[in-house]
Write a structure and sequence with these properties.
By secondary structure, the chain is of the alpha/beta class. Helix 4 links the parallel strand 4 and strand 5. Helix 2 packs parallel to helix 3 and helix 9 packs parallel to helix 10. The protein starts with 12 loop residues before the first strand and ends with a helix. The structure holds flavin-adenine dinucleotide. Flavin-adenine dinucleotide binds next to helix 4, helix 5 and strand 6.
Length: about 290
């Protein structure tokens, strides 16, 4: 199923994100987690891809295709494969699209990807909008775009970043998935700015439950999400008690989601971190609200 068909049906779309296991673990290690996630009946599951650069992206991205295919064909759940482009040629992307098409994967999150300063990038694609246009011209896929409620780290301003998001939409993106955020006011304001900019495609809010302090510090340093006092207080209080921090993180995410759904958000995209326990706790708390 094409993800764009899920929106506008009077129900909040609820989706999950997973990542392929590390290079040292066999791909099958994710299948039991996926089996548990399936029981939570998400509308779709997206699968991240390698960042490119020095990480051996082609091997990593073939695992993305395998996992997206498994979700689609073995679990019977709509899947979405993430795809970056700065370290790919047009020919690489064509081959990738062919593989996805053969597996029946109909949805792609088209990304530029982070640029590794130690690895020279290629120039077949400058931005995610170029990849979006190319996918639309060369296959029958629904394309999603990443968006950044606090602005992308490299963008001069949020206003400029929103203009660039418009280019991705003009290139064919059908819906957006947001970067994680911990302050809902940031997301509400972003929605207002999108409306002013004339952007009216569905936007899913990316929610990351905190399950350990290190993980969140790493994510925040990578994406620059701001941390409201309510959140940092919680982290400080429970930093030495992993179980309490996990439970507080789940409660915090549920609180964010309740507010977002009450405000009419199009969808919630849960960064599951491949952790079915946390996804289950959150799903059970919000299932009657969707
Ligand atoms: P773009 O939309 O191309 O934007 C990149 C920068 O260029 C921005 O600052 C933008 O404002 C600017 N820009 C865009 N167009 C123009 C233009 N025409 N002229 C001038 N400037 C322009 N990374 C991975 O490696 N693997 C993943 O699986 C992955 N999944 C993600 C999922 C989500 C939901 C999100 C939000 C991010 C994900 N990322 C992933 C991270 C992403 O690859 C990085 O944030 C990357 O730096 C930007 O990708 P993009 O597609 O947003 O780029």
């Amino acid at each position: 199923m094409k993800i764009s068909q899920l929106f506008g049906k009077g129900k909040t779309v609820f989706s999950f994100e997973v990542f392929p296991p590390k290079k040292t673990s066999p791909i099958e290690t994710i299948y039991s987690a996926l089996g548990e996630l399936k029981d939570l009946s998400p509308d779709f599951i997206s699968v991240t891809c390698g960042a490119g650069g020095s990480t051996g992206h082609k091997a990593a991205d073939s695992n993305t295709v395998k996992i997206a295919s498994y979700i689609q064909n073995e679990l019977g759940i709509t899947s979405c494969a993430h795809l970056t482009c700065v370290y790919y040629t047009k020919q690489d992307i064509l081959e990738h699209l062919e593989q996805l098409g053969k597996c029946g994967v109909e949805n792609i999150l088209a990304l530029r990807g982070d640029i590794d300063p130690n690895v020279p990038r290629l120039h077949d694609f400058e931005y995610a909008s170029d990849l979006t246009r190319f996918i639309k011209e060369n296959g029958d896929f629904d394309v999603a775009a990443a968006c950044y409620p606090e602005g992308h780290m490299e963008a001069e301003s949020l206003a400029r970043d929103i203009n660039h998001l418009k280019i991705k939409i003009e290139a064919g993106a059908e819906h957006c998935i947001s970067q994680l955020f911990f302050n809902n006011d940031v997301f509400h304001r972003f929605r207002e700015l999108l409306e002013i900019a004339g952007i009216n495609i569905p936007v899913e809010a990316g929610i990351m439950p905190v399950t350990n302090k290190k993980q969140i510090e790493r994510m925040v340093s990578m994406c620059g999400a701001s941390l409201p006092p309510k959140f940092t207080k919680m982290m400080q209080k429970y930093e030495n008690d992993p179980e309490a921090l996990r439970d507080a993180g789940i409660a915090y995410a549920v609180d964010q989601i309740v507010d977002l759904i009450s405000s009419g958000v199009d969808g919630i995209h849960l960064y599951t971190m491949n952790n079915p326990y946390v996804a289950r706790k959150i799903s059970e708390s919000i299932k009657t609200l969707l």
